[in-house]
């Protein structure tokens, strides 16, 4: 099996005039003609070879008068007869080279070797070899070790997304339920629990990779497919409950236990099923799996097979998951790297809504938004008129939301796509994990219009359409960043038709629910329909529900602006509602913006005027804390005195290596009050990029935090922390001139500045 097809040798050997093998042809030739006869490869409906005729097949080639290609040659075939298959063999040799006794001796040794192989196999010998499990790369010793531990039927490498899931499991030390997917189906009517359990086991037997075991004990992690796997199946009857415990609470407890059971990727069972009888003729079928073995597109297929098997219907032949894995292994990785490298080139920093220092995953919160049928139709019409897809339109809206939230004009977010190849026969009916997470990049200048953004996203998608299989870790390497995004936007176009599932059954599906999550702090799922609905899952340790609701409002207004005028600039879209505008006015900012521009003042001068007007008004709010204009003025004055002492002044630069924080605002004001210009450096950029900016800008000092100070190792610059200025005077300094430089910013060239 490890050898390439024999015909390729013939093409290279005999059709290539420049071939030079340099040696003599082999002395021995061997041809196995396969299995022929009644049920063999040479049989056709209505007729077949007779045993007498079949027995002559092996010698047919030798009967043709032509020069011998080898000194001795063996032609063999397995022939079906009325007493079973028989091996027929015919030896041909050159009498000038070999005698009959020598060939007879050779024939005896060959049959002796065959008999030894048969005896070995009868005793349980044989088994998998490295060629059997390709493209997995294990040696024979490693395969044998796994076979001693498990009843191995096959060994597969991990797909790109499976590699990412394993990395997450290892870094969280297992037992993490975040990638546990749970489908809950309510069935109303008479139901045979035993038959349903048998149907589940039958379907799992058709797709044994659902019960895969993950092994990372070797250099290359693999998934082990066991022979005759049995899915854990449980039946729980709650109708006999004494009423002291609420039925729904019991269902919730069982469901939670099932999720915990599949949460351990390296040691748990990755697929489980339980049927809970809640009332006389009402049941809850709960299927739980780790995302490692099943994607959302497979759910309708899996459920359809289970219910068809329950009815005793004949199921079509299953498509082995190995076919998909083999297809992935045959992709052109270099071409994929080139395509994605072009898309990801020049990204200065990842797009993160959470600090890079944030670790762990908090309790998951969920908020929903339903778009009207009118808005949904308008979005579909926009996609059609722009010659793109509804998904691209929605992605453009989310990109604009990220641009507004992060303040960046070059943003990246993730999306999940199906990688079921059209060239792979029956891929649409495959069950398993056939998806990947890929980045979506959107860049905007001041003049970029909605139409420009739609065209940009569509073009980038088309350019990577044939390369969606590339691992996200590989894309990180191409971009030069350990991480590209921490938000996910997904269009889930795999709706489950409950009416179809209920057809031809005595019961009907009366409720259907899917519970799934991931480790990203913010995920937006779009569920298609006549009225689009959005499900936003978020990390409650990071986001307050009020912020999420506000963001959903912004997103809704972005979509409204898109369908209103596709030619308008992104920078002209106002996402704030009346209440938010009123809040700005309350904070005192609107009154400043509404006044005629003072071209003779500086930023510190304008700020000082606002301090004089509203000293106790809130100037800055961040993560539950706030500063008044007076407090912000005094803090920045103290820092300005410290900076002047360090050499800051007009024509000088001060670098800011700070995360988004109160300290960052104080630092910017402090630098401006010192008369210098600030140079912002994103903490997420590579160390090499930090070094380049510092070398090129030549700042007199760097303001940073204790946590980020080690990123400045090797640079001979004064390091200042905002807290260092506590002992300095809060008195004001001489105001800088309006024509003094305010800031110096380094971009990737995508912002137009």
From TrEMBL:
Annotated AMP-dependent synthetase/ligase domain residues: 607-753
Residues in Condensation domain copies: 154-584
Transmembrane residue ranges: none
GO MF entry, a single one: phosphopantetheine binding
Sections of the chain in a coiled coil: none
Gene Ontology biological process terms, A to Z: amino acid activation for nonribosomal peptide biosynthetic process; antibiotic biosynthetic process; lipid biosynthetic process; secondary metabolite biosynthetic process
Keywords: Antibiotic biosynthesis
Signal peptide, first to last residue: none
Gene Ontology cellular-component terms listed: cytoplasm
Protein name: Non-ribosomal peptide synthetase
């Amino acid at each position: 099996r490890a050898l390439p097809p024999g015909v390729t040798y013939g093409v290279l050997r005999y059709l290539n005039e420049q071939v030079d093998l340099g040696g003599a042809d082999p002395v021995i030739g061997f041809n196995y003609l396969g299995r022929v006869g009644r049920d063999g490869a040479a049989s056709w409906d209505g007729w077949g070879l007779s045993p007498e005729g079949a027995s002559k097949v092996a010698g047919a080639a030798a009967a043709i008068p032509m020069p011998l290609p080898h000194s001795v040659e063996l032609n063999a075939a397995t022939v079906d007869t009325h007493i079973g298959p028989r091996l027929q063999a015919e030896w041909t040799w050159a009498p000038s080279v070999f005698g009959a006794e020598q060939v007879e001796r050779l024939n005896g040794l060959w049959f002796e070797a065959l008999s030894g192989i048969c005896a070995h196999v009868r005793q349980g010998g044989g088994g998998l070899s490295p060629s059997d499990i390709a493209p997995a790369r294990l040696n024979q010793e490693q395969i044998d070790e796994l076979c001693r531990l498990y009843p191995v039927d096959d060994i597969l490498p991990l797909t790109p997304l499976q590699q990412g899931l394993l990395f997450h499991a290892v870094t969280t030390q297992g037992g993490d339920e975040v990638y546990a997917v749970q489908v809950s189906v309510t069935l109303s009517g008479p139901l045979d629990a035993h038959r349903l359990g048998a149907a589940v086991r039958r379907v799992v037997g058709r797709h044994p990779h659902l019960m895969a075991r993950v092994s990372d004990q070797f250099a290359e992690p693999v998934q082990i497919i066991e022979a005759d796997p049995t899915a854990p199946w449980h039946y729980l009857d709650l109708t006999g409950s004494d009423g002291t415990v609420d039925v729904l609470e019991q269902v919730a407890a069982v469901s939670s236990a099932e999720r915990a059971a599949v949460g351990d990727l390296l040691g748990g069972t990755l697929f489980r099923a339980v049927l809970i009888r809640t009332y006389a003729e009402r049941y809850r079928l709960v299927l739980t799996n780790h995302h490692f073995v099943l994607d959302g597109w497979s759910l309708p297929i899996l459920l359809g097979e289970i219910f068809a098997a329950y009815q005793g219907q004949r199921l079509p032949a299953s498509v082995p998951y190995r076919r998909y894995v083999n297809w992935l292994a045959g992709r052109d990785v270099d071409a994929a790297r080139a395509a994605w490298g072009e898309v990801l080139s020049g990204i200065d920093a990842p797009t993160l809504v959470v600090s890079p220092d944030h670790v762990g995953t908090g309790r998951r919160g969920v908020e929903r938004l339903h778009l009207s049928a009118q808005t949904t139709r308008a979005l579909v019409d926009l996609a059609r008129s722009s010659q793109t897809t509804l998904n691209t339109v929605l992605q453009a809206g989310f990109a604009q939301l990220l641009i507004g939230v992060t303040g960046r004009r070059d943003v990246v977010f993730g999306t999940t796509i199906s990688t079921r190849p059209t060239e792979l026969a029956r891929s649409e009916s495959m069950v398993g994990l056939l998806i990947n997470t890929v980045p979506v990049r959107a860049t905007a200048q001041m003049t970029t219009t909605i139409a420009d953004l739609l065209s940009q996203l569509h073009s980038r998608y088309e350019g990577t359409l044939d390369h969606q299989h590339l691992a996200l870790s590989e894309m990180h390497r191409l971009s030069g960043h350990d991480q590209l995004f921490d938000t996910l936007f997904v269009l889930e176009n795999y709706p489950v038709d409950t009416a179809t599932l209920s057809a031809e059954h005595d019961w009907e599906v009366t409720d259907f629910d899917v519970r799934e999550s991931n480790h990203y702090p913010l995920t937006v799922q779009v569920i298609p329909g006549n009225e689009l609905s959005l499900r936003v899952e978020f990390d409650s340790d990071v986001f307050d529900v009020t912020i999420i609701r506000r963001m959903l409002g912004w997103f809704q207004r972005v979509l409204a602006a898109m369908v209103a005028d596709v030619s308008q600039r992104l920078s002209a879209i106002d996402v704030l509602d009346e209440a938010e505008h009123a809040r700005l006015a309350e904070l005192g900012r609107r009154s400043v913006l509404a006044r005629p521009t003072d071209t003779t003042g500086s930023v510190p001068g304008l700020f000082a005027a606002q301090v004089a007007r509203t000293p106790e008004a809130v100037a800055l709010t961040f993560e539950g804390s706030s500063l008044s204009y007076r407090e912000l003025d005094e803090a920045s004055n103290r820092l300005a005195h410290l900076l002047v002492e360090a050499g800051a002044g007009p024509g000088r630069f001060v670098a800011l290596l700070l995360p988004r924080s109160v300290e960052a605002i104080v630092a910017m004001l402090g630098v401006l009050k010192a008369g210098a210009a600030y140079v912002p450096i994103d903490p997420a950029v590579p160390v090499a990029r930090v070094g380049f900016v510092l070398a090129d800008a030549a700042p007199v000092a760097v303001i940073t935090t204790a946590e980020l100070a080690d990123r400045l190792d090797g640079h001979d610059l004064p390091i200042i922390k905002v807290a260092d200025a506590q002992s300095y005077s809060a008195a004001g300094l001489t105001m800088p001139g309006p024509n003094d430089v305010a800031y110096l910013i380094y971009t990737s060239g995508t912002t137009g500045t």
